[in-house]
Amino acid sequence: MAYKFDWGVLLVYRHLLWQGLVLTVQLSALGMVLSLVLGGVIGLSRRVEAKPVRWLCGAYIEFFRNIPLIVQLFFWYFAVGLEAFPAAVIGLTVYTSAYIAEVIRSGLQSIPRTQIEAARSFGMTPYQVIRHVVLPQALMRVIPPLGVEFINVIKNSSIAMTISITELTFQTQQIESLTFRGFEAATAITILYVLLALAIVALMATIERLVRLDLRLG
Amino acid sequence: MRVTRVLTAVLVAVLMVAGVGAATAQESTLEVVKKRGTLVAGVKADYPPFGYTDKDGQLVGFDIEIVNYLAKKLGVKVELRPVTSANRIPMLTTGTIDLLAASFTITIEREKVVDFSIPYFMSGGSFLVKKGSGIKGYASLAGKTVTFTQGTPWEKKTLQEQPKAKALVFQDKPQAVLAVKQGKADAYVDDDIPLYLFAKEHPELEVVNGATAKQPMGIAVRENDSKWRDFINFTLIEMWEDGTYRAIHKKLLGVDPDPDLRIFPWKL
Asked: Quick one: which of A64, A183, B244, B258 has the fewest CB in 10 Å?
């Protein structure tokens, strides 16, 4: 192996890694919360009676999830002219919410029609059917794919460096261009990204356990 | 004995004449080119605006214009050979090409293996700003937002010169240019040549020099060929004097040559 590792550079430039990590966490956390809200609303709206609403939500999903994120970020930053951070948050939110809406919809659709018909024949109102029959079961089923989407938010947040956000991946390249120590810097962020992803996995596992307890599923 | 001495003297004389003959047989590239009727020049094919391929597949650019001018003075045809940064010196020293006009910066290390003409272009770091911004150099960047592309030395250099500047770093040049155009940044610091091309495309932007001292580029020839090198030098001076240089500069970079740079100032 011809390459001599010098892990000291990580210590020298740890402030860059720390700044990048903070920005990545801020960006991802905001992106997750906002896209869950927006995606939830859109996913649920695909089940309403009014046809134009369903159509509109479908169009939103197909439009935003089929345009590369980098193009959307350029749009918000350069074309709309937002500041870099709001542009990144909005771009990530809009893009991810389209995926989350589909996750929510698949959760709702996984409940067999017969259950809903049975609940209705018991005399439950449509609201009661949703609240007591569909949502509790759907919630259980969307938690694992939601975790996947959240991990994607963390990874996608690195694209924000194209609009001058100095997040974790950017800082890695900065360390590389300052020291020509690309492998060390890449190793460091690999570990950091894995840790972030594992944190999401742990969080989703906890939520799943709490929901199971709450629903008395054991 | 006398015979031997005479023979020795004759032999020495013959050897001396042969030696002189060998020295003069090494004729200058100038004669070789004239005899051949073709000037074979090494140029870049991928480095606008110096040497690049246009949309018709033709090699064009600043260096090619200079080669054409030299050939016109010689009354010979031009044959262009694309070179890369890695193979350009061997192409010249092995005699494949007669001269090298390939955005070649004059350095001591290179002077050891080839000879250079007088400098015909100066290149360094510059600022791309909006016209009328009043930005004159690092001093006027205090409190301003300055944009860079990642991996260039300009961010470090600028923040050393002006610690009060705010950095905005992009991955590619076009985004940095757009940021200046939209007022997200006040200046973009990078190598001057791409900046000239951007300023040519976007008339509301201009290049302000002075981010670093400029480095000279020269035409390289084989070592110890004074006749050939003189011809190139004198022709470059003529080119400057008769306005051709200025016209080429204006055509390819969109601006007149920097008035501070008298590239050939010593014709009496």
From this structure: A183
- List Cα–Cα distances, B38 to A110, B31, B77, B79, B239, in angstroms: 78, 11, 5, 7, 20
Write the ipTM. 0.77
- B130 forms bridges with which residues in the sheet? B205
Interface test with A, best of B171, B173, B177 (most A CBs within 10 A): B171
Q: Of A158, A78, A159, nearest to B177 (Cα)?
A: A78
Does residue A161 sit at the B interface (CB-CB below 8 Å)? Answer: yes
Q: What's the rounded Cα separation, in Å, for the pair A45 and A53?
A: 7
CA B37 to chain centre: 25
Q: Mark B144-168 as b/e (b = at least 16 C-beta within 10 Å).
A: bbbbbbbebebbebbbeebeebebb
pLDDT by residue (tens digit) across B130-182? Answer: 999 999 999 999 999 999 998 888 898 999 999 999 999 999 889 999 999 99
Q: Which of A81, A164, A178 is the closest to B170 by Cβ?
A: A164
Determine the residue of chain B that is closest to A159 in CA distance.
B171
Cα–Cα distance, B125 to B127 (Å, whole number)? 7
Across the A:B interface, residue pairs with CB atoms under 8 Å apart total 28
Answer whether B151 sits within 8 Å of A173, measured CB to CB.
yes
The minimal CB distance from A177 to the residues B151, B168, B175 is found for B151
